[in-house]
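Supplementary Note 2. Why include the ligand at all?

Several targets in our set were suspected to adopt different conformations when bound, so apo predictions alone were not considered sufficient. For every target with a known small-molecule partner we therefore ran a joint prediction. The input for zinc ion is given below.
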Amino acid sequence: MTELTPITFAEIDIDRIAGHGGRLAVFLEPGGRLDAAARRVNKLMKGALLRLMESQRFIDLKPGETISLAYPSGLAAEAVDVLHMPRRADQEVARRAGASLAKLRGEADLLMLAAGTRRVADVAFGLAMRDYNFQDHKSEPKPRKGTVEVMCSKPEDATEAATPLMAVAEGAFFTRDLTNAPANVLTTTAFAEQLVEMKALGLEVEVLEEADLEKLGMRTLLAVGQGSDSPSKVVVMQWKGGAEGEAPLALCGKGVVFDTGGISLKPGAGMEDMTMDMGGAGVVSGVMRTLARRGAKANVVGLVGLVENMPSGNAIRPGDVIKTMKGDTVEVINTDAEGRLVLCDVMWYAQDRFKPEALIDLATLTGAVIIGLGHENAGVFSNSDKLCDAFLKAAEAEGEGAWRLPLGKGYDDQLKSRIADMKNIGGRPAGSITASQFLKRFVQKDMPWIHLDIAGVASLKSESLLAPQGATGWGVAALNRLVADQFEKG
Ligand code: BES
Ligand code: MN
Ligand code: ZN
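The joint prediction is reproduced in token form.
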């Protein structure tokens, strides 16, 4: 797994400033006063820091942004990174500040002078999240070197505040690594193996093989995988941090390790992006890792359906009718609408076996959600205003875009089939909603449920605030917060 940059918090020791050989970061507020550490830097630099602070360039800087002074005389440091950091900086600004430092740092040792800064833990979180570089397939990987140290007023408190945030970053890194991995490397088998390794963190992990899935009647999931040489699997991860016997929250993820479209083959251009079609399963795996790492006091089960959607002489055809685990029959009109066929069985099984308190599924389910919401927001669909509002609040607090879209009978009618109980597609109008209506048919009575269509947010072509280009880990922070806010009792 891509390793997190270790970040330590230490007491303020201004005598270390002059001799520090890497980079120094100074947090300043325009019009504010210099703290003791900043005063020392300013003195060693013969007043340059104050001149910068009073300059228009600094005043124009957005909170959380940086100006770097390279090779300053009077200091051993290779650069001083000066951040615009309001005293009352909110979480987002603090994370933005950390992210800017991550980008500047390279491999240098970074010493932050953050005496007057609240939210140092959020600065550290922003830095850790942005300091990600997927190098698994570079023949000359650049290992992240250098140390990151934060001098602050209460290092013990900062360490305590940062610990659960680093658990989130670790979960997000796990999600990103899985989502970035190519499909010849992250096969269904390799994916399952990585999840089994999480037993070391205290999770219970079971792998259901094809024979098990056949016995359980997960026929639509198996149908999607039947054209591939890689065996289909369902992995069940249980975190039992809550009261014994208390109903868990269930998280279900679409884990299509590669989506060619099957016999309804996708066009060639851009097909390589479908290595990320296991992104929903990636988020579920990352959240489970975070919960275990921080010892969450809640019961949560994570289930992922791992399959590969390939065309072959053995693949499902358009027109095939398959019976789901629930017992309803589906006419497969388009083999490229495979995610819902995987999820319907996983969701049914999760509810049958665990009788959860609530159910949340995640999937890179439709291209249509990208047409509707772009890459800014995931599509949110729910039958429960209460659960949905709690999730939207958690996502907002974590800066993870999420936007609710409607459900309704009219959309459901688009799934009517002449010969089976339903079709697997509802035509062009409202493609993300009809996909959700399909899933909704597999939500048991009175079960609070959210479906998150993350096709637009799981992986990006350009960098974002907390992630470089590629997999983002969207959803790990929001779901972790939802668990903390709503499912951890006592
Ligand atoms: N995995 C795709 C959806 C997707 C598209 C994810 C773009 C990420 C980026 C999904 O399986 C799919 O192919 N959906 C079809 C559904 C259609 C056949 C009804 C789509 O969106 O075109
Ligand atoms: Mn598809
Ligand atoms: Zn897909």
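The two ends are 33 Å apart (CA to CA). The first strand starts at residue 7 and ends at 10. Comparable summaries for the other entries are listed in the accompanying table.
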